[in-house]
Amino acid sequence: MIPVRFVAACPSGHIQDVPFKEWVHNGPVPNDGEHELSYHTGGGSGDLGSITLKCTCGERRPLAGLMNIRKDGEDVFDSALARIGFNPDYDHKFDKEHPNNSNPQGQYCKGHRPWLGLEGIKDAAGCKIIY
């Protein structure tokens, strides 16, 4: 096991694991067997582009761009994680009131509060924040 130095957090204080498997597969993980990830670092500056995740299925993806966000003034309306599985050929219309409906395969804040124990994850109320 290798401790990972990244977590997903939203401005409301919710924390959850980064969806690394979905990041590598750019969407839902295929249901065709076991998908185990390995973490590889290259030489260089230590930026996110030098860290690559590899799946046993052969998919691989560097972490470059993982923290990218797009803003409309002060409001964050999109993130690299929210675009997981996004079809660029689709005319994407972002819905500020219901952001998860804009790309249901994207990864959004689930409202996890792990400091409350398992109840803080099982009974999460959800969140409209995009991380």
General description of the model:
This protein is α+β, with helices and mostly antiparallel strands and 131 residues long. It has one domain. It has three helices and seven strands. The strands form three sheets. Strands 3-4-5 form a three-stranded antiparallel sheet. The longest helix has 6 residues. It is globular. The model has no long low-confidence stretch (mean pLDDT 80).
The biggest beta sheet is recorded as: 3 strands, antiparallel
Query: How would you describe the shape?
Result: globular
Rg result:
16 Å
* CA(first)-CA(last) distance: 26 Å
Mean pLDDT: 80
Q: Can you tell me the residue ranges where pLDDT is under 50 for at least 5 consecutive residues?
A: none
Question: Which structural class should the secondary elements be placed in?
Answer: alpha+beta
Number of structural domains: 1
Strand order of the largest sheet: 3-4-5
Number of strands: 7
Helicity level: 10-25%
Give the amount of beta strand, in percent.
15-25%
What is the number of helical segments per DSSP (H or I, 4+ residues)? Answer: 3
Order of helices and strands: EEHEEEEEHH
